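Check my protein:
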Amino acid sequence: MSRNVSAAVEGRSGPIAHLAWPGASGRTPVLFLHPVNTAAALWGDVARHLDGERPAVAVDYRGHGRSVAAGPYLPSDYAADALTVLDAVGLRRVHVVCGSIGGAVAVELTARAPDRVASITAFGAALHIGWPPAQLDEVEQDLRHRGVEAWFRAHATDILGPAAVPGAGDALAELASSGGDGVRDIEVVVAATRATFGAADSRPTARTLRRPLPPTRVFVGSHDPTCPVESAQELANLLDGEVHTIPGIGHLPMLEDPRGTAEKIRTFLTTVPD
């Protein structure tokens, strides 16, 4: 498969970066939406395992990867970034594949542009996490004390499951800490973290989505500490989808088992009209 192509387009807050992979013409493309504090590159191995079966694009949300470091950092803002990229690269309709807060982003995207979402495949996703202020304060203090890269290295074993591929923790730390100018600004990381784990709540949006809803399948790792099966079931219920559990996997299946994640995407999309 050809290597990905990286580019940036101008969004309302500034440049929004993305990666694109070529694929078979005439097939509905995939749009990858990443978890908070990662980046579009998180999906690289998954895209390679899909092996050009269809075109794919992955967005760096604002404050992540090579995109502009400017808020706000809520799912509706990330959905606006995704739409900016879709418009710029000329993709009219996509199969959305998302992780963690990407599930909420997918819902916000569906609310804004329902005709453009052909399906939703979610991994370790939730519409609302809602940590209490004391927990958010504790995480912020630890992030500021350790620094972003060290924080993710220290907590990788809490985030990932026992079946994660070797090196997944190192890859997570690098994705979380790398930005367009080298190292991500701690203030951006703190703001995005507090918004995602505290304020973000796309359940009201999901309840108002018009029917018919896009076909949806939700996958959750058996060791996911952040978006456990209850969160997956809530997302699936609101989107009339179904939940599948992945044994031995934690919060980031696309990083922990990219080959298996690609196969789950491939299998689900065979059931969805193109």
In short: DSSP finds eleven helices and ten strands in the chain.
